[in-house]
Amino acid sequence: MQSSMGLLTRRRFLPLFVTQFLGAFNDNLFKNAMVLFAVYNVYSDPKQETWFSGLATGLFILPFFLLSATSGQLADATDKARIIRLVKLAEILIMIVGAIGLLLPSIPLMLAALLAMGVHSTFFGPIKYAILPQHLERDEVLAGTGLVEAGTYISILAGTIIAGVIPVKAAAAMVVIVAVLGYLAGRQVPPAPPTGELDHVDHNPLTASYRLVSSTMHIRKLFLAILSISFFWMIGAVLFVQFPPLVKNVLTADKAVASLFLAVFSVGVAIGSVIINRLLKGEVSARYSPPAVIVMGGFVLAFYLIARSWVPDGRDLYDVMEFIAHPGAPALLGALLGVAIAGGVFVVPLYAFLTTTVSQGETARTVAANNIVNSGAMVIGSVCALGLSFVGVSAVDQFLMTAGMCLISAALAWKLHRACD
């Protein structure tokens, strides 16, 4: 891992890492501050809370589904560093609107800002992976991908924790300040001009998405990699929708504990992202992905069993220290950490695979095609979570569904490993 950490001293990687770190931090600080405010201060019904959490997730994901094709084409046809500067400038304006929404408070303004941040992330998303093969050597791409993933989830951790412990007014100020810092970091990313030729950019989101996905998914290796990643994010969508209502209504804990859950998940994925680079020693391979996602499913099942047997002591909502003192808390948090570590080991090589299978001139479009399918899978996961909640399936019981989905991901990852032999 020494060579991996050495990338953090290089200008060809560090500014991108910092820009991504700050962007993911801001996304999660704002989204979690908004969701926790609504769940704990606006709504008092478990179904309404689940619906709002799902709506927030869906609005953030929607632009990935509609605009990823356009963003991928622009990233392959334009200097990627220039696009970074433009989207980070837009983030400042978006977060000003979001901050006003938090201060009033205004749910419509908050949701509008969240949707706009989804658009911002859609145009930045293909770049953060596609730029790596341009700035890094081939044997550094897996390490760079792992660091980006680890940094992303550490920033999610930081944003999640801070959203749960600071006042909403402080969160409003912080999201604007972080957006400005992200813009300054983005200006330091070295140029990454297009390496291939693109005849034209199709601005119609429907036709562009269809053509991009169909032209990518006919390649068997990419098809299997994208589907494997998509099932992973479908699982993640279900977990993220259910965490706040689960913590409040099943575990009877306050919003800081909801933040703790998201934080533990983020730490785990970061750990897994680092572990897999050590295991593979820089080689881009899916051989550890099938067993990793099976282990992930086992931990999801353990989490389900522990949560189902949870017995609150009848007091008001637990704070963090009271929750940790509960006899079932260590096992529950350990199972959640196991889910996340196995998830990081599973998904990082698949992202590296996407950017090293095609030519550098096609990497952004390949990542964009992946984002389209991923976002569709996350929408399906969110809708399933909302639908099951509507018909009376508890948040705890929905974890059984995610455990079964892990088996599908394992089968797809095994086929990918075999196809690459």
TrEMBL record:
InterPro entries: MFS, MFS_trans_sf. The keyword Cell division does not apply. Its main location: membrane. Coiled coil: none annotated. Signal peptide: none annotated. One of its GO terms (cellular component) is plasma membrane. The keyword Transmembrane applies. It is a multi-pass membrane protein. It comes from the Bacteria. Keywords: Cell membrane, Membrane, Transmembrane, Transmembrane helix, Transport. GO terms for molecular function: transmembrane transporter activity. It is found in: Cell membrane. The chain crosses the membrane at residues 50-71, 92-116, 153-184, 222-244, 256-280, 292-311, 331-354, 375-393, 399-416. This is MFS transporter.
